[in-house]
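Incident log, structure service

09:12 report received: a user says their structure output differs between two submissions of the same chain.
09:20 pulled the input from the user's history:
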Amino acid sequence: MFRIGTLALAILATSSAAAFAGKVDDRREHQYYKIEQGRQDGSITWTEGLKLRGEQRKISKVESILKSDGYLSKKDRRILNKMQNKAAYQIESQSDDRWHRVWWMPRFGR
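09:34 re-ran on a clean worker, output below:
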């Protein structure tokens, strides 16, 4: 009986860690999409886009460092969540800061 409970707990722990990893990836993809959407409609300028994508790369690097042991602890998840919250705030504030690409100018860069 003890072994079955331990096995069930181990399966639950790995599935919840995998679910969180999926949530981090989904959130990162959504943030990349929001940046690109802002670049397309002109609400995010070229330089703002560079900074925001750099922030996303930094989050990815930190995540890979934290995942190097194959496990994300509660503290690691909290760190990533804070970084993604800050990035989401930056994306929204850059979209709403009234700096826009002039409609007749072509879009440069990524």
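09:41 both user submissions now match this output. Likely a transient worker issue. Closing.
09:42 reviewer note: The chain has a mean pLDDT of 79. The helical segments are 2-41, 46-66, 74-95.
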